[in-house]
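User: Predict the structure for this protein chain, please.
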Amino acid sequence: MKRKGHPDSSALALHAGGDLGWIAAWKTSRHVAGCDECREEIAAYQGMRESLPALNELPNLPWNRMAEEMRANIRLGLSAGECVREAEQEEVERPVPLFAGFRAALATAVVAALLVAGLILERPTPSIMSASVPVVQVTGDGVERRAGDQGFALMHEGVEVKNVTYSVGAQGTMGASFVDPQNNLVTMTKVYVE
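Assistant: Here is the predicted structure, written as structure tokens:
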């Protein structure tokens, strides 16, 4: 960390070991001559440098005993691995049925759900014409309201179906609008169900 007006810590550490370049060493020496704080930091670096060689020595350890323990642990690990490998091979050799227990029940439930969904989605819809409930529907000739076998239709004769615009309301209304080809007037019809 560089303090204002002081050399940074790395320069002081290099100066303490005599590893600073000669120009930087001259500048640092001039500063250290008048700065007690930097002089103390250099002294701390020199003390640390003197204690480092003592850390490099290895303590007296029983290397042969440690080596024997390591070999014994390795042999034990290999033996344990063989036991596990034999147990895994026994499990693999034993055949497991494809659908057993819970999996069979789950597969059966899924197939049943698919069949029910298919029947619901594909069942024939009841005929609108036979229902006694009033229904508004679009036919090829117009818009009609029908209840059972009775009905009322607003026809648009002579108009192609592709030129008719149909609209459906949320309250049970249906309408059709088109341009009458005979008189070029816009015809709009709307039928309500009550």
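DSSP finds five helices and six strands in the chain.
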